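re: ur question from yesterday

yeah so i grabbed the chain u mentioned. its 334 aa long if i counted rite. heres the sequnce exactly as i have it in my notes:
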Amino acid sequence: MIYGAQDLINSVDILEYISQYTDFEKRGEEYWALSPLKKENTPSFSVRKETNSFYDFSSGIGGNVITFIRYHDKVGYKDAVEILKKYLGDSGCAEGVKVCKRLSAAEVAKKYSAKTCTHNSQPSKPKVVLPDDYMQRYEKKSDKLDVWRKEGISDSSLERFQVYYDRYSNRLVYPIKNIEGKIVNIGGRTLDENYKEKKLRKYTYFMQWGELNVIYGLSDNMEYIKEKREIILFEGCKSVLIADTWGVRNTGAILTSHLNPNQLKLLISLGCRVVFALDKDVNIRKDYNISKLRQFATVEYIYDKNNLLKEKDSPVDEGFDTWQQLYNERRVWH
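ran it thru and got these structure tokens back, copy pasting raw so excuse formatting
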């Protein structure tokens, strides 16, 4: 047994650690997900927070975070301990009986209790709301922002949407706000070039969602949406930032490839035209909630009739001129 290894194990929230590789859903006292150890279609991977342990029913493997690292990274015990130390940070290694503590975004966020927000005097479901100055805990490291600068995002847009750097997870981080402008989650984009080999998710969230009931960028862009009487909806937050760089600010992102009932209600409350600019490989005509939205609003969508985009491109991925042509040729869903 390596000296201090148990202190390392005890100091890590196993749910937070494994959430780097798969999405969990709470069921009763356990959290369930698709196994990150074995390919499967039905969630059979379980984490119990009270014991800080996991069990993978698909492979029969279970144990603590070191056990998980050994099987996930295919390494021995000593290497697994070193991987965990690196995750905790150089200053987080156990010394004597000292327990390591990693001040990650997810860990800090857990300290804030749920508050109830309101909109138009109607109470919404309780949810975690972080302090308005929450993003100040992150770093404004210019060199780390280069990955998004190279994709055409301006410094002013990075600053407007508070894109910073979290050195503990080596990710760009940005706040996700509800319609009142309160921070309800933190999004992260990994800067690890080997994220695929390590089976890390490129984009992740630092807290469990529960129900996804926000549209990214909606509160920041509300005045432009009202002025245009139109909202353009992308899949991802990066597309919102690229559009903002071009001066297109009546936008938002649904953070996935389909519209859910909570987002449907938000769009109905806006009372404006909705233009879906989802990735090329998404067929909005198969989306039940988008179809339902047509009862309450004019629904338009980007259609790439001239094959200007690659298969999985966002409509903003090929530059402003291409975007402008696609937007001008948008179709109405009658």
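noticed a couple things. The chain has twelve helices and 18 strands. also The longest helix spans residues 77-88.
anyway ttyl
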